[in-house]
Amino acid sequence: MDSLPYNAWLAGPLPEGVEAAIARICRTQGVAHVAVMPDVHLATEFCVGTAVASEECLFPGAVGGDIGCGMLALQFDADAAVLEDPQKAARLLGFLETMCPSRRHHRKLAPEWPGELRDAVPSHEQLRKDLHSSEALLQLGTLGAGNHFLEFQREQASGSLWLMIHTGSRGFGQRVYHHHLARARRADSGIMAIQSDTVEGGAYLADVRVGRAYARWNRRLLAIAAARAAELVLHASPNMETLVDCDHNHVQWESHAVGLTEPRGFFVHRKGATAAAEGQPGLIPGSMATHSFHTTGLGCARALCSSSHGAGREMSRTQARNGISRSAFRRQLQHVFYDARLEGKLLEEAPAAYKDIHAVMRAQGELTRIVRRLAPVLIYKGI
């Protein structure tokens, strides 16, 4: 694969099927460059943990359905040791379950619709109905399931309390994805593509922007609710000046000098890859019981100024459910407060199901710089 437009930063051997999937992407007409992150793993058409540059084509599969999925971090004026009290931890978890639901809000508790979303006009009548539906409103400010989470964390250096949230655009992003995928055409490699200079190309880009806005507001409203819960239980207040928000599922026009003497414009698709331009803040979570990292991008052109978005899965969800025992799960999370009632359903998110986050961070030393390390203290996950 040396002749292909492909660079990789790997923490170990490529997972089964990934190399063939990347080769297929590289052969696709319109693909100019592919960068592979150390958390790469197999997904539909495009692997999670890749950044793909193109000049004329847009690839909905290179963004995926959870458009705008990303991370938020926020510091509190308290020491994380406050959550060593199991009664406070249990009370906080109870408030989070009510104020930050995983699926949808009760109609009486739905948040106020942000002006940015109220004024947004998606490209198609059905998407406009989807965005302004009661379902989209009730899902706004909710966590979702799978690998999405809300954590209270301890900064390693100072011991201070931080919040980290991982979630995206909920059902609306999926609707945008499927709407445009149905209108895409099959490229020479079989991958679905949209010409960027067509009406449909412009519509897809516009709708991705709306999906990213929905995801950004989703994280912001969750953070506001979680901060309210922390104030009630811990008497801890957030420092809004510390807020960092970044997403890792998007496509946008950027300038890069990949194999060129002068920078040139590309559509950069990131699917499970964090933008890491020089000096750009980033957030890279580990797994349920391992470190997460606040980072600063180093602007590596060969990586399309990207880095990993997390540890990346080592096992499929099915493999994790069948191969990780509850006793092993408990040992892995013995220093973290979580809802033990959900233990069976959380096995697929066990730390052993993910790659070693420290190996991932070492592998991308030229992509991003670690600013701070944080360890989970309390985890809230949806099911």
Structure description:
The protein has 383 residues and is α+β, with helices and mostly antiparallel strands. It has one domain (6-380): tRNA-splicing ligase RtcB (Alpha-Beta Complex). Helix content is 30%, strand content 28%. The protein is built from eleven helices and 17 strands. It has a seven-stranded antiparallel sheet. A hairpin with a 7-residue loop joins strand 14 (281-284) and strand 15 (292-297). It is globular and about 60 Å long. The chain starts with 5 loop residues before the first strand and ends with a strand.
Overall tally of structural domains: 1
Write down the Rg. Answer: 20 Å
Number of helices: 11
Overall helicity: 25-40%
CATH superfamily: tRNA-splicing ligase RtcB
The CATH architecture can be named as: Alpha-Beta Complex
CATH class: Alpha Beta
Please render the helix and strand layout as text.
Elements: E1 6-8, H1 18-27, E2 31-41, E3 48-54, E4 57-58, E5 70-79, H2 86-99, H3 115-118, H4 125-131, H5 134-139, E6 149-155, E7 160-167, H6 170-181, E8 185-186, E9 192-195, H7 199-234, E10 238-247, E11 249-256, E12 264-271, E13 273-275, E14 281-284, E15 292-297, E16 306-308, H8 317-323, H9 326-332, H10 343-346, H11 357-363, E17 368-380
Parallel strand pairs: 1-2
Antiparallel strand pairs: 2-3, 3-12, 4-9, 5-7, 5-10, 6-7, 6-17, 8-9, 11-12, 13-16, 14-15, 15-17
